[in-house]
Amino acid sequence: MLAGGQPGSQARLGAGQIDPGNTDLGESKLPGPAAQFAEQLRAVDRSMVLLTHPPILETRRLDWPDEAACAAFARRLAALPSLRPDTFIALEGLLGAGKTTFVRHLLRALGVPGRIKSPTFAVLEPYEVDGLVVSHFDFYRFEDAREWADAGFRDVFAAPGLKLVEWPENAASVLPLADWQMELAALDGDRRRVSVNALTDHGQRLLAGMA
Questions:
Q1: Which fold would CATH assign to domain 58-209?
Q2: Residues 208, 2: Cα–Cα separation, whole Å
Q3: Contact 182/165 with Cβ under 8 angstroms?
């Protein structure tokens, strides 16, 4: 995000940027210190991109015309033996995109009884069904990374179980790599456009099972 500077002040440069008004910072024809430093900055930029945006191994794009299609997809996923004992699914999308609706259908398909609450305020709602531990997270209000350790979330992710995470971007600095990154977008009516990105080998196996 760009911010306007005060009159007469000079805007700060980000990593890897070159000041067009300072020719001494331009690329050198010789591999001198300035050129080496510029290359180091570019290498840091590339590594940060890899950390922030992990490579997608495979993508499947879906069009759910209604909630029944969402429920059907959830039932097929719940029936996969490879979903157990340990899978992490990150759900991204704007408010109203259908993240919680999908989670509820998946939990129902897994056999979770009773009322299924949204963990918006509690952050975590745990379940156990047929020996499978399911942890439904909602990081919409997550702001302090210290809460991650204080609440024992690190232990939850270190243990086997199914982890379903809404608003993972708010806890990106502490979350491990997801097996699936599901991006949901609301279209007209109940229609949803969904991208399922496999980020791990396990995620790819899950996608193969949904074919």
A1: Rossmann fold (3.40.50)
A2: 43
A3: no
